[in-house]
Amino acid sequence: MSPGMSPGMSPRVSKVMTAEQVAASVESGMTVGIGGWGSRRKPMALVEALVRAPARDLTIVSYGGPDVGLLCAAGKVRRVVAPFVTLDTIPLEPHFRRARQAGEIAFTEYDEGMFMFGLLAAAHRLPFLPTRAGLGSDVLRVNPELRTVRSPYGDGEELVAVPALTMDVALVHLNRADARGNAQYLGPDPYFDDLYAKAAGRCYVSCERLVDPADLLKEGPVQSLLISRSMVAGVVEAPGGAGFTSCEPDYGRDEAAQRRYVEDAREQG
Amino acid sequence: MSRADVCVVACAEAFRGDGEILAAGIGGAITVLAARLARLTFEPDLITHDGVCLLTGDVPALGQAPEVVEGWLPFREHLWLVLNGRRHVMLGASQIDRHGNTNISCIGDWARPKAQLLGVRGAPGNTRCDPTSYWIPRHSRRTFVPEVDMVSGLGTDRGAFELRRVVTDLAVLDFASPDGGMRLVSVHPGVSVDDVVAATGFELHGVSGQVARTREPTGEELAVLDRLDPGRLREREVAA
């Protein structure tokens, strides 16, 4: 603690670090959750640093987009846990496709709602949460470890017990953050980034711009403060750090860069 | 009047009687136009969205931002709404069988697929909890198969909440048969029953005897479609 600072006004403990430091803290065999959705507000600067770092045999938990693709292409991935992997405007993600078709990665394939309940269970420190989503589908066939539970009440309904999606590390990208990790989204959708932060042992936030805590409410209402510093282990200032995925309102998806990404993947075969 | 116009209206008809619930399309011109057309004509209480996360107070043309926003539906709320059920979704399918089980996950053996597709996405929960319809732009034996490779959306034999109808470029089908199998409801103008049978990889109910013709759009409906889709993007989804 620095003496002489007024409490609450200036960061006493700065958590600011580099993307390389975040990536170096990830160990082989870890489970890494990645925020955003499809090709939207993905922490691409952190993912690219992870591609260059030594960690491998990772389990990636993600509403998947190019984050999953890049890590698969780099041979970092042992297992993907996801309801989909897509680039949104380009439906199929080429690296993930190739890795699956080559039998290089294991896949835990969940329904989107099941996946959310897995995040909610982990965020609430529950072993599982029950849901109807998944019942009757082949999600139960291809995930034979999944169990169902029966409602203890009069209805006696059988439900899928979605296990908590706990993770060692979460990586998320938001629009603004302060040096201690209070993080703010300014776009129309929070996605599930707060749940990743709460579900992880350590959450790292990259942001478009580091701001003074006193300035957080200058750009958005208090409801836009999505993640509290108590959930955050490190903060990286990474302008453009979600590109080529979208980061509204700072920038939209770079569709030309996304098309090049797909063409490059095709050339790599 | 084009085949695409007939298809949009046939998809819009899926929402008839739904009232004040979200009409959700998977995207693309036809399903989005269908929900908006239904709202602007015979189903005015329907809730429609902008394809991202806004519930629109007005009904904008394709690709246009709404002038009035009446609600917020980020993904977490959308996934909640799926479980809540006040929603009728029109999905797509890479494969569909005679009970309406559908696959968007992968082709071939799941353990090592010949072709990895999207993944199951929300299809399991959608079909278990919400009324569901399908829009399939190319009716063929490649899509209408005896057995799907990975059941993503539930059929009538696996506990689907309600499969309302399947609209293709050739016909309208439903599952109102004694065994919950797929039934031919109507063929689009210019399409024969034989065309539909030839393009379907399993036996259909309702193909013997008189089969109805899918209704043509009214003049009012065509005017609405011209306003919502002046560039006729809908034509690109349906083979001429």
UniProtKB/TrEMBL annotation, chain B:
One of its GO terms (molecular function) is CoA-transferase activity. The keyword Transferase applies. Keywords: Transferase. SUPFAM superfamilies: NagB/RpiA/CoA transferase-like. It comes from the Bacteria. SMART domains: CoA_trans. Transmembrane segments: none annotated. The keyword Transferase applies. InterPro entries: CoA_trans_fam_I, NagB/RpiA_transferase-like. Belongs to the 3-oxoacid CoA-transferase subunit B family. This is CoA-transferase.
